[in-house]
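Protocol step 6 of 9: fold each sequence in the batch and record its structure tokens directly after the sequence line. For illustration, a two-sequence batch is reproduced in full.

Sequence one:
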Amino acid sequence: MIEERATVTEVDGVYVWIETASGGSCGSCSSNGSCGAGMLGRALGPGRPRRLRLRNTLGAVVGDRVDVGIGEADLLRAALLLYSLPLLTLFIGAGLGQIWFGADLAVAATGALGLGLGLLLARSLARFGGGAWNQPRLLRRAGQSRLPVEPLAANRRLV
């Protein structure tokens, strides 16, 4: 689970708006000087805080500090969808342009068309089912233990 700390800024019915600080993950490891993500973050400078709307599963109120997270498998699935699918459709489009037309300009145009279609398809698939599989979720209030503590009586069986 990839986690980040956020602050609840607004409560809207069963949803909360949270705000996270930007750039919290890069710059803290030993390969900071040679990492592309770290260099890009330094070049772009400090960004705006990110604001997300999530289902309020914790009963959080404005001002609460919460931990939000997304599973590694969900993040990998989203990355594969958003990067691989458009790249695949670009190659398919360029290949079909080569077969059908053979001219370089036509290959570039059909490749660009394939890329555009792949981006639209990835966007549609990411929103399929409400996008619940790729959404972060509230994990706990800041300061709570990582595992919920259950009363001992709930764990005992009556024999």
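Sequence two, same batch, same settings:
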Amino acid sequence: MEEKNTPVAVAAPVKKIRKQKVVQRLLKGKGQAHIKSSYNNTIISITDQNGSLIAWSSAGKCGFKSAKKATPYAAGIVVKDALEKSKDSGIKEVDVFIKGIGPAREGAIRALAANGLQIASIKDVTPVPHNGCRPKKPRRV
């Protein structure tokens, strides 16, 4: 009996993709809220005490366009959206870090307090140059 050599199709091994689970270690329900407010947008990040991201949201992501992204009303909606995503993490108290200048700074802090979070501290971390780079020349209109 003769055996015929027939080609056998061998499939390439499939790589298994493992999703990494973020282990959130919250110390007594305490976290951080980072608010970046500019003239064009408002971005809010909720992190644990180590700085590991739990949830984030921005005004552009919530559906606001153009100049409406920098309003205090948009900041309130952004805070609600970020807290909705982070509600299963168990955060009850936050340290607030604000960066930038914009009209939504106070609106975001008020929205954090109105949505049931205790505000432990508020710190302004806006970068200020100590006579570093020369600023752009003023615009002439």
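Proceed to step 7 once all outputs are recorded. Observation for sequence two: Strands lie at 30-37, 42-47, 53-58, 93-99, 118-124.
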